[in-house]
Fold this protein.
Amino acid sequence: MPDQPRKLILAAPRGYCAGVDRAVVTVEKALERYGAPVYVRKQIVHNRHVVEDLMARGAVFVDDLDEVPDDALVVFSAHGVSPQVKQEAQRRGLRTIDATCPLVTKVHHEARRFATDDTQIVLIGHAGHEEVEGTTGEAPEHITLVQGPEEVADLELDPQRPVSWLSQTTLSVDETAQTLDRLRQLRPDLLDPPSDDICYATSNRQYAITQIGAHCDLVIVVGSANSSNTGRLVDVAVAAGAGAAHRVDDAAEIDDSWLDGVATIGVTSGASVPEQLVQDVLAVLEAKGWPPAVEESLIEESMTFALPPQLRSRRTRPAATGA
Ligand code: SF4
């Protein structure tokens, strides 16, 4: 038993962001309005439980439009798609609903605007992430990806042309700042986007766990392995001084060995995680002897996004893409 009294701290904000909520509700409403099956290109959001729940209700998740039958309805995920994917859907005459988060769409607009000026764009992000693929597709000739500060020195930029930067929305705020510092050393004339691309939800969740993590022997982050913002919360908690930080998809993944000698536990969740999964984690910890969680609310959030137009109107059938 630890010497100190046990404490369970619940971070706020945590869990669903406005973009995830909109994307999940989009699939739910599409199923209600048009009936199953509703095809979804890629995971609608990066959470295993959300995806499994929607599958049980009639959503069919595919990696590629090739897997979508002609005349089917397909939803594009919150992470966004490249123009090439939209063009392919249009060519096929597929009915589409775009659940791309408006804050990802904003980054796409910025990429197009910089490319129009023939500006080189350094995109800070993770190779292979769907959001990065979608953004890169907006201006493939102009965008070069860097994954962190250590890759900046290898950039091959044309010294005669202007350079700007953009980023994936779900990165570590601190690491991105380091990458940016290196970029500015390389190119002091670096052009900034009109506003930061790391979204409010990512930075708020990181801020909250930074404040709490410093006082925790252990931080448990609820979220799936392929969720970028969940992974960053684990990194940020450790960087803030937490004794350890672990990610779990759900309460069943809590390893008892993590709890040895631990007094204070912090709990948070990624932006694609339903609150019930967090409550299940708290219930398990309470059953193991921790007191009821005390929520520490660091920032209030009130962001909401309107649903895609097809689900706001009275139309009963979404038009084919581009119509
Ligand atoms: Fe949008 Fe940010 Fe949520 Fe991603 S994490 S869906 S960018 S609000």
About this structure: The chain is about 35% helix and 15% strand. The longest helix spans residues 18-34.
